[in-house]
Protein 1
Amino acid sequence: MSKRYKEGINRNQQQFFPPSLDEYVDENNQVRAVELYVQRLDLKEMGFDDTSTSFEGQKSYFLKYIFMATLIR
Protein backbone atom coordinates (compact mmCIF):
# COMPACT_ATOMS: atom_id res chain seq x y z
CA MET A 1 0.00 0.00 0.00
CA SER A 2 1.16 3.45 -0.83
CA LYS A 3 2.18 6.07 1.73
CA ARG A 4 -0.35 8.36 0.04
CA TYR A 5 -3.09 6.88 2.26
CA LYS A 6 -3.67 6.70 6.00
CA GLU A 7 -2.84 3.24 7.16
CA GLY A 8 -4.27 1.15 9.95
CA ILE A 9 -2.28 -0.84 12.44
CA ASN A 10 -0.56 -3.91 11.03
CA ARG A 11 -2.78 -6.75 12.25
CA ASN A 12 0.23 -9.03 12.59
CA GLN A 13 2.15 -6.57 14.77
CA GLN A 14 2.81 -8.00 18.20
CA GLN A 15 0.90 -6.38 21.05
CA PHE A 16 1.02 -6.79 24.82
CA PHE A 17 -2.43 -8.36 25.01
CA PRO A 18 -3.55 -10.20 22.91
CA PRO A 19 -0.38 -11.20 21.06
CA SER A 20 -1.67 -9.71 17.77
CA LEU A 21 -4.72 -7.71 16.66
CA ASP A 22 -5.56 -10.44 14.14
CA GLU A 23 -6.36 -12.75 17.06
CA TYR A 24 -9.35 -10.59 17.99
CA VAL A 25 -11.18 -11.93 14.94
CA ASP A 26 -12.15 -15.60 14.77
CA GLU A 27 -10.90 -17.50 11.71
CA ASN A 28 -14.51 -18.23 10.66
CA ASN A 29 -15.77 -14.67 11.14
CA GLN A 30 -17.64 -13.20 8.16
CA VAL A 31 -15.29 -10.21 8.23
CA ARG A 32 -12.52 -12.38 6.80
CA ALA A 33 -14.70 -13.37 3.82
CA VAL A 34 -15.58 -9.71 3.19
CA GLU A 35 -11.90 -8.78 3.29
CA LEU A 36 -10.96 -11.47 0.75
CA TYR A 37 -13.83 -10.40 -1.52
CA VAL A 38 -12.90 -6.71 -1.45
CA GLN A 39 -9.19 -7.38 -1.93
CA ARG A 40 -10.02 -9.09 -5.24
CA LEU A 41 -12.11 -6.19 -6.57
CA ASP A 42 -10.72 -3.65 -9.02
CA LEU A 43 -12.35 -0.56 -7.53
CA LYS A 44 -10.94 1.79 -10.19
CA GLU A 45 -12.53 -0.32 -12.90
CA MET A 46 -15.81 -0.13 -10.95
CA GLY A 47 -15.71 3.66 -11.12
CA PHE A 48 -14.32 4.57 -7.70
CA ASP A 49 -12.03 7.60 -7.82
CA ASP A 50 -8.46 7.68 -6.61
CA THR A 51 -8.32 10.50 -4.06
CA SER A 52 -4.73 9.88 -3.04
CA THR A 53 -3.41 12.54 -5.41
CA SER A 54 -5.28 15.40 -3.73
CA PHE A 55 -3.06 17.90 -1.92
CA GLU A 56 -5.91 19.47 0.07
CA GLY A 57 -6.95 18.41 3.56
CA GLN A 58 -6.01 15.18 5.29
CA LYS A 59 -4.74 12.07 3.60
CA SER A 60 -7.45 9.74 2.33
CA TYR A 61 -8.15 6.39 3.89
CA PHE A 62 -7.30 3.46 1.64
CA LEU A 63 -10.42 3.00 -0.51
CA LYS A 64 -10.65 -0.75 0.02
CA TYR A 65 -10.81 -0.23 3.82
CA ILE A 66 -13.73 2.17 3.44
CA PHE A 67 -15.47 -0.22 1.06
CA MET A 68 -15.01 -3.12 3.52
CA ALA A 69 -16.42 -1.05 6.37
CA THR A 70 -19.55 -0.23 4.39
CA LEU A 71 -20.11 -3.88 3.48
CA ILE A 72 -19.71 -5.02 7.08
CA ARG A 73 -22.16 -2.47 8.49
Note: The longest helix spans residues 30-40.
Protein 2
Amino acid sequence: MKTEQLFRCLADPIRLRIVLLLWQEGELCSTEIARVLYSTDNQIRRHMALLSKNQLVVFRQKELFHCYQLSADLPLWVQKTLKHTYRGNKSLLDDISQPNKNYLQSTAS
Protein backbone atom coordinates (compact mmCIF):
# COMPACT_ATOMS: atom_id res chain seq x y z
CA MET A 1 0.00 0.00 0.00
CA LYS A 2 1.26 3.44 -0.89
CA THR A 3 1.22 6.21 1.66
CA GLU A 4 -1.10 8.41 -0.38
CA GLN A 5 -3.59 5.53 -0.71
CA LEU A 6 -3.82 5.16 3.05
CA PHE A 7 -4.29 8.85 3.68
CA ARG A 8 -6.88 9.19 0.89
CA CYS A 9 -8.85 6.40 2.55
CA LEU A 10 -8.58 8.00 5.98
CA ALA A 11 -9.28 11.54 4.72
CA ASP A 12 -13.01 10.87 4.65
CA PRO A 13 -14.44 11.27 8.18
CA ILE A 14 -16.78 8.29 7.87
CA ARG A 15 -14.05 5.97 6.58
CA LEU A 16 -11.72 7.15 9.34
CA ARG A 17 -14.37 6.36 11.94
CA ILE A 18 -15.01 2.96 10.35
CA VAL A 19 -11.32 2.07 10.51
CA LEU A 20 -11.07 3.25 14.12
CA LEU A 21 -14.19 1.29 15.00
CA LEU A 22 -12.78 -1.87 13.40
CA TRP A 23 -9.50 -1.31 15.23
CA GLN A 24 -11.42 -1.09 18.49
CA GLU A 25 -13.97 -3.87 17.93
CA GLY A 26 -12.34 -6.33 15.52
CA GLU A 27 -14.91 -7.73 13.10
CA LEU A 28 -18.24 -5.99 12.50
CA CYS A 29 -21.01 -6.41 9.97
CA SER A 30 -21.98 -3.48 7.79
CA THR A 31 -25.36 -3.24 9.53
CA GLU A 32 -23.62 -2.93 12.92
CA ILE A 33 -21.29 -0.24 11.59
CA ALA A 34 -24.22 1.62 10.04
CA ARG A 35 -26.17 1.49 13.29
CA VAL A 36 -23.44 2.88 15.52
CA LEU A 37 -22.35 5.53 13.01
CA TYR A 38 -25.94 6.61 12.28
CA SER A 39 -25.59 5.82 8.59
CA THR A 40 -27.26 3.51 6.11
CA ASP A 41 -26.06 0.06 5.21
CA ASN A 42 -25.65 1.13 1.57
CA GLN A 43 -23.48 4.11 2.51
CA ILE A 44 -21.31 1.93 4.71
CA ARG A 45 -20.95 -0.72 2.00
CA ARG A 46 -19.85 1.96 -0.48
CA HIS A 47 -17.13 3.09 1.94
CA MET A 48 -16.18 -0.50 2.67
CA ALA A 49 -15.78 -1.21 -1.05
CA LEU A 50 -13.15 1.53 -1.25
CA LEU A 51 -11.39 0.34 1.92
CA SER A 52 -11.45 -3.21 0.57
CA LYS A 53 -10.15 -2.14 -2.84
CA ASN A 54 -7.21 -0.49 -1.07
CA GLN A 55 -6.67 -3.66 1.00
CA LEU A 56 -7.31 -2.03 4.38
CA VAL A 57 -10.19 -4.34 5.22
CA VAL A 58 -11.20 -7.87 4.35
CA PHE A 59 -14.75 -9.04 3.80
CA ARG A 60 -16.58 -12.25 4.53
CA GLN A 61 -20.15 -13.31 4.08
CA LYS A 62 -21.81 -14.42 7.33
CA GLU A 63 -25.22 -15.77 6.40
CA LEU A 64 -26.97 -12.69 4.98
CA PHE A 65 -24.50 -10.20 6.44
CA HIS A 66 -21.39 -8.58 5.04
CA CYS A 67 -18.74 -8.61 7.79
CA TYR A 68 -15.48 -6.71 7.76
CA GLN A 69 -12.27 -6.55 9.72
CA LEU A 70 -8.94 -4.87 9.21
CA SER A 71 -6.67 -6.86 6.96
CA ALA A 72 -4.19 -9.06 8.78
CA ASP A 73 -1.74 -8.45 5.92
CA LEU A 74 -1.34 -4.73 6.50
CA PRO A 75 2.28 -3.60 6.32
CA LEU A 76 3.83 -2.84 9.68
CA TRP A 77 4.01 0.90 8.96
CA VAL A 78 0.24 0.93 8.26
CA GLN A 79 -0.47 -0.99 11.47
CA LYS A 80 1.62 1.49 13.46
CA THR A 81 -0.06 4.44 11.75
CA LEU A 82 -3.51 3.05 12.56
CA LYS A 83 -2.49 2.27 16.14
CA HIS A 84 -1.30 5.83 16.74
CA THR A 85 -4.28 7.29 14.91
CA TYR A 86 -6.62 5.27 17.14
CA ARG A 87 -4.81 6.26 20.33
CA GLY A 88 -4.84 9.93 19.41
CA ASN A 89 -8.40 10.07 18.07
CA LYS A 90 -10.58 7.88 20.30
CA SER A 91 -12.75 10.95 20.73
CA LEU A 92 -14.00 10.45 17.17
CA LEU A 93 -15.95 7.49 18.54
CA ASP A 94 -17.21 9.31 21.65
CA ASP A 95 -20.49 10.33 20.04
CA ILE A 96 -21.58 6.71 19.72
CA SER A 97 -24.53 6.67 22.05
CA GLN A 98 -24.59 4.43 25.11
CA PRO A 99 -27.34 2.18 23.66
CA ASN A 100 -25.16 1.64 20.59
CA LYS A 101 -22.10 0.90 22.75
CA ASN A 102 -24.23 -1.63 24.63
CA TYR A 103 -25.34 -3.05 21.28
CA LEU A 104 -21.72 -3.57 20.21
CA GLN A 105 -20.91 -5.22 23.50
CA SER A 106 -23.91 -7.55 23.23
CA THR A 107 -23.02 -8.61 19.69
CA ALA A 108 -19.49 -9.47 20.78
CA SER A 109 -20.83 -12.11 23.18
Note: The first strand starts at residue 28 and ends at 29.
Protein 3
Amino acid sequence: MNVVNVVQKFGMDDFLERSWELPSEVIEPLREHVNVGDDGWIIDAWPMMEQIAAIVQPWVTEEFDVASGAWFVESWSGPEQVQLPGHSL
Protein backbone atom coordinates (compact mmCIF):
# COMPACT_ATOMS: atom_id res chain seq x y z
CA MET A 1 0.00 0.00 0.00
CA ASN A 2 1.33 3.41 -0.98
CA VAL A 3 0.10 6.34 1.16
CA VAL A 4 0.82 10.01 0.48
CA ASN A 5 -0.27 13.26 2.11
CA VAL A 6 -1.77 15.65 -0.41
CA VAL A 7 -3.32 19.07 -0.95
CA GLN A 8 -6.42 18.90 -3.14
CA LYS A 9 -8.23 21.59 -5.10
CA PHE A 10 -11.85 20.98 -6.14
CA GLY A 11 -13.73 22.83 -8.87
CA MET A 12 -17.14 24.48 -8.87
CA ASP A 13 -18.65 21.09 -9.81
CA ASP A 14 -17.04 19.47 -6.72
CA PHE A 15 -14.77 17.34 -8.91
CA LEU A 16 -11.07 17.16 -8.13
CA GLU A 17 -9.17 19.63 -10.33
CA ARG A 18 -5.65 19.11 -9.10
CA SER A 19 -3.59 17.65 -6.27
CA TRP A 20 -0.08 18.12 -4.90
CA GLU A 21 1.90 15.54 -2.95
CA LEU A 22 3.40 16.82 0.30
CA PRO A 23 6.83 15.83 1.62
CA SER A 24 7.15 14.15 5.02
CA GLU A 25 8.70 17.27 6.61
CA VAL A 26 5.29 19.03 6.69
CA ILE A 27 3.77 16.46 9.07
CA GLU A 28 5.16 17.80 12.34
CA PRO A 29 4.05 21.42 11.67
CA LEU A 30 0.61 20.15 10.55
CA ARG A 31 0.00 18.12 13.76
CA GLU A 32 -1.18 21.26 15.57
CA HIS A 33 -3.93 21.84 12.96
CA VAL A 34 -5.04 18.39 11.69
CA ASN A 35 -5.29 14.87 13.08
CA VAL A 36 -2.14 12.93 12.14
CA GLY A 37 -1.71 9.27 12.99
CA ASP A 38 1.39 7.75 14.57
CA ASP A 39 2.46 6.58 11.11
CA GLY A 40 2.56 10.19 9.82
CA TRP A 41 -0.56 10.12 7.65
CA ILE A 42 -3.31 12.72 7.87
CA ILE A 43 -6.52 11.21 9.23
CA ASP A 44 -9.68 12.41 7.43
CA ALA A 45 -9.87 15.37 5.03
CA TRP A 46 -9.33 18.84 6.47
CA PRO A 47 -10.50 22.10 4.88
CA MET A 48 -7.74 24.58 4.17
CA MET A 49 -7.27 27.24 6.84
CA GLU A 50 -4.79 30.12 6.85
CA GLN A 51 -2.52 28.28 9.30
CA ILE A 52 -2.43 25.12 7.15
CA ALA A 53 -1.96 27.14 3.95
CA ALA A 54 1.11 28.84 5.41
CA ILE A 55 2.68 25.43 6.09
CA VAL A 56 1.94 23.74 2.75
CA GLN A 57 2.14 26.70 0.31
CA PRO A 58 5.81 26.05 -0.63
CA TRP A 59 4.76 22.72 -2.24
CA VAL A 60 1.66 24.01 -4.05
CA THR A 61 1.98 25.89 -7.35
CA GLU A 62 -1.22 27.92 -6.92
CA GLU A 63 -2.20 30.54 -4.36
CA PHE A 64 -4.87 29.44 -1.89
CA ASP A 65 -8.31 30.98 -1.61
CA VAL A 66 -9.21 29.52 1.77
CA ALA A 67 -12.63 31.18 1.75
CA SER A 68 -13.61 29.26 -1.41
CA GLY A 69 -13.98 25.93 0.39
CA ALA A 70 -12.26 24.27 -2.58
CA TRP A 71 -9.00 23.32 -0.84
CA PHE A 72 -8.31 20.34 1.47
CA VAL A 73 -5.43 18.35 2.97
CA GLU A 74 -5.64 14.59 3.48
CA SER A 75 -3.93 11.27 2.79
CA TRP A 76 -4.46 9.08 -0.26
CA SER A 77 -3.72 5.40 -0.38
CA GLY A 78 -3.29 3.11 -3.34
CA PRO A 79 -1.31 0.18 -4.62
CA GLU A 80 2.47 0.27 -4.52
CA GLN A 81 4.14 1.34 -7.74
CA VAL A 82 6.07 -1.51 -9.25
CA GLN A 83 9.17 -0.83 -11.29
CA LEU A 84 9.50 -3.17 -14.22
CA PRO A 85 12.99 -4.28 -15.31
CA GLY A 86 14.41 -1.82 -17.81
CA HIS A 87 11.86 0.90 -16.97
CA SER A 88 12.18 3.84 -14.64
CA LEU A 89 9.35 5.58 -12.81
Note: The first helix runs from residue 27 to 30.
Protein 4
Amino acid sequence: MSLSRRQFGKAALTSAAPATTGVVGFPRVAGLADGNRSSFRSHDFPPHHLRHQGYVLRIDPISSSSSAADHLDATFRVIS
Protein backbone atom coordinates (compact mmCIF):
# COMPACT_ATOMS: atom_id res chain seq x y z
CA MET A 1 0.00 0.00 0.00
CA SER A 2 1.05 3.58 -0.57
CA LEU A 3 0.34 6.79 1.25
CA SER A 4 -1.20 9.58 -0.78
CA ARG A 5 -2.13 13.15 0.05
CA ARG A 6 -5.85 13.83 0.27
CA GLN A 7 -8.05 16.87 0.74
CA PHE A 8 -7.55 18.93 3.95
CA GLY A 9 -4.14 17.45 4.64
CA LYS A 10 -5.45 14.04 5.69
CA ALA A 11 -3.49 11.01 4.57
CA ALA A 12 -5.08 7.87 3.20
CA LEU A 13 -3.78 4.45 2.27
CA THR A 14 -4.32 3.31 -1.27
CA SER A 15 -3.38 0.23 -3.24
CA ALA A 16 -3.34 2.10 -6.57
CA ALA A 17 -0.09 2.33 -8.53
CA PRO A 18 2.02 5.41 -7.69
CA ALA A 19 2.15 6.54 -11.33
CA THR A 20 -1.62 7.01 -11.39
CA THR A 21 -2.25 8.51 -7.95
CA GLY A 22 0.40 11.20 -7.42
CA VAL A 23 1.78 9.26 -4.44
CA VAL A 24 4.56 11.06 -2.64
CA GLY A 25 7.53 9.64 -0.76
CA PHE A 26 8.37 10.34 2.86
CA PRO A 27 12.08 9.97 3.63
CA ARG A 28 12.88 9.29 7.27
CA VAL A 29 14.70 12.20 8.94
CA ALA A 30 15.78 13.04 12.49
CA GLY A 31 12.77 13.63 14.73
CA LEU A 32 11.60 17.23 14.89
CA ALA A 33 11.00 17.05 18.65
CA ASP A 34 13.68 14.45 19.52
CA GLY A 35 16.69 13.71 17.34
CA ASN A 36 16.76 10.13 18.64
CA ARG A 37 13.33 9.49 17.11
CA SER A 38 12.08 9.87 13.53
CA SER A 39 10.05 12.25 11.43
CA PHE A 40 8.92 11.71 7.85
CA ARG A 41 9.32 14.65 5.47
CA SER A 42 7.48 14.84 2.17
CA HIS A 43 9.80 14.39 -0.80
CA ASP A 44 7.53 16.39 -3.13
CA PHE A 45 6.46 19.06 -0.60
CA PRO A 46 9.58 19.61 1.58
CA PRO A 47 8.01 21.74 4.32
CA HIS A 48 5.33 19.06 4.87
CA HIS A 49 5.70 16.19 7.32
CA LEU A 50 3.57 13.25 8.40
CA ARG A 51 1.97 13.96 11.76
CA HIS A 52 -0.85 12.61 13.88
CA GLN A 53 -3.63 14.81 15.20
CA GLY A 54 -6.87 13.64 16.76
CA TYR A 55 -6.16 9.99 15.84
CA VAL A 56 -5.78 10.98 12.17
CA LEU A 57 -2.56 10.76 10.16
CA ARG A 58 -2.05 14.07 8.38
CA ILE A 59 0.39 15.73 5.98
CA ASP A 60 0.98 19.30 7.18
CA PRO A 61 3.63 21.99 6.80
CA ILE A 62 5.88 22.06 9.86
CA SER A 63 8.88 24.36 10.22
CA SER A 64 11.34 25.37 12.91
CA SER A 65 8.91 28.16 13.88
CA SER A 66 6.00 25.73 14.36
CA SER A 67 4.82 25.01 17.90
CA ALA A 68 6.39 22.38 20.14
CA ALA A 69 3.11 20.44 19.93
CA ASP A 70 3.38 20.35 16.12
CA HIS A 71 6.94 19.01 16.41
CA LEU A 72 5.81 16.33 18.88
CA ASP A 73 2.92 15.30 16.60
CA ALA A 74 5.41 14.79 13.75
CA THR A 75 7.92 12.77 15.77
CA PHE A 76 7.59 8.99 15.94
CA ARG A 77 9.34 6.09 17.64
CA VAL A 78 10.11 3.51 14.98
CA ILE A 79 10.07 -0.06 16.27
CA SER A 80 10.86 -3.24 14.38
Note: The helical segments are 18-21, 68-73.
